Amino acid sequence: MFKFQVLKEDFFTGARLGIIETPRYRAYTPLFMPVGTLGAVKTLSPHDLRDLGATIILANTYHLYLRPGHDVVRELGGLHRFMGWERLILTDSGGFQVYSLSPLKKVGPQGVEFRSHLDGSMHFLTPEKAIEIQESLGSDIMMVLDECLPYPCSENKAKASLKLTNAWAKRSLVAKRGPGALFGIVQGSFYHHLRQQAVEELVEMGFDGFAIGGLSVGEPPELMYEMADFTASLLPQEKPRYLMGVGRPQDLVEAVSLGIDLFDCVIPTRNARNGTLFTWQGPMSIKKACYTKDPLPPDPRCTCYTCRHFSRAYLRHLYMNNEILGLRLNTIHNLHFYLTLMEKMRQAIAQNRLAAFKREFLAQYGGDHGKVPQKD
């Protein structure tokens, strides 16, 4: 039901051009998944996403479990029908949201007890429950329940957490009943021997793909790249590799060159709603007064709907007046930029010129916005 094949490896880097095939749809990698936490990418319709070239979107188990409820979605024909999206859906397990959103949580061998951030009600999420929810949603790619740790983290804590996460992974495999693919998640914080142990144990279990978790949690970018490189080098060549929650444009270019295939992040959509637009010269803040009378498109090199029809001055006007159209046009532009960036990298890999593309991109990419937050 789920197949992945590496079609081409870049001669000078670890980058891979690949294809994911399922009965529903096929998707070429490396790819970026827009985040549709509640079954919707904010301000955009499924038609917009198809026009932009998105092939997989990410939806969130935690949020859909709490509202409207996975049973409701199942009764209405599954998440694809519920949201009108016929291409692929990846759902995360909800572990990160429990870690980041729950005001009260208690982690134990059986699972995690947490208080809903919506109404304060108590819930208990187990590995089996996470799989049940994702299968009810009809996810094409599911994630095991894992524990996400902050940075820095003691070695003893990381070791105990890894033991728990891999035990949950094994239980997730046993619980799986439906046709959806299931990815294991490599944890281990920033300890090389724990990451290696995690990979060895997960590979033996036999997952359809592997995610690298526990990065972009406050560490310096150089450390993130080093650990992503180390972990990716241990993973099986024939399985897809997914770097979770990492998504500045420069991070994507670096990580693709390390042989990573799938990415997701809220950066393009969240920053669009905050007035930041990504361009080939770097991020720009459309809120700046210097754009008040600027007749140019956000990025003269861009071919998206927004850049073909609207000026910086108009987008600033919309943003300063809280017009919803501005958020929508900004989001169209940012996702077009991200998906085009991935397409350019796929082309570069096919031509054995990813290293040259990386040098050219990083030399151009600067911007006037400064640091961009990495997490939702």
**Integer average pLDDT:** 95
Shape: globular
Counted up, domains total 2
Looking at the structure, the CATH topology of the largest domain is TIM Barrel
Separate helix tally: 15
Q: Strand-residue fraction?
A: 15-25%
Which parts are unreliable, with pLDDT below 50 for 5 consecutive residues or more? 368-376
CATH domain class of the largest domain:
Alpha Beta
CATH homologous superfamily identity of the largest domain = Queuine tRNA-ribosyltransferase-like
> Which structural category do the helix and sheet elements fall into?
alpha/beta
Largest sheet: 8 strands, parallel
Relative helix content: 40-55%
Describe the strand arrangement of the main beta sheet, using strand numbers.
Answer: 4-14-13-12-11-10-6-5
For the termini, the CA-CA separation is 32 Å
Spatial extent as radius of gyration: 20 Å
Q: How many strand elements?
A: 16
Specify the CATH architecture of the largest domain.
Alpha-Beta Barrel
